Amino acid sequence: MPYINIQVTREGVTREQKAELIKGATDLVVRVLKKDPAATFVVIDEIDTDNWGLAGESTTVLRARQAAEVQRS
Questions:
Q1: DSSP H or E run through 8
Q2: How far is CA 30 from CA 12, 23, 68, 73, in A?
Q3: What is the pLDDT of residue 73?
């Protein structure tokens, strides 16, 4: 019984995109591992950008800096 956990930042992922991720991940496990799709669980966790970090900073701070740099260009 495969369990697939997909984590993304909460930044407007649509219902349709989530459905495509669930189907695509399930299809991959079925094709590669020959698992039963009826026994394959896919969970998508949406994480606030304040709770997701890279290089010592939250994604919120990184995105704000990137936006400021684009405005200066």
A1: strand 3-9
A2: 28, 10, 44, 47
A3: 85
Task: Output the pLDDT for position 11.
Answer: 92
Rounded-to-integer distance, Cα 30 and Cα 3, Å = 12
Q: Which of 1, 44, 38 is nearest to 22 (CA)?
A: 44
Catalytic residue check, 37: no
Task: Say which of 1, 2, 34, 73 is annotated catalytic.
Answer: 2
**Domains in the chain with CATH codes:** 3-72 (3.30.429.10)
pLDDT band at 64 (very low <50, low <70, confident <90, very high): very high
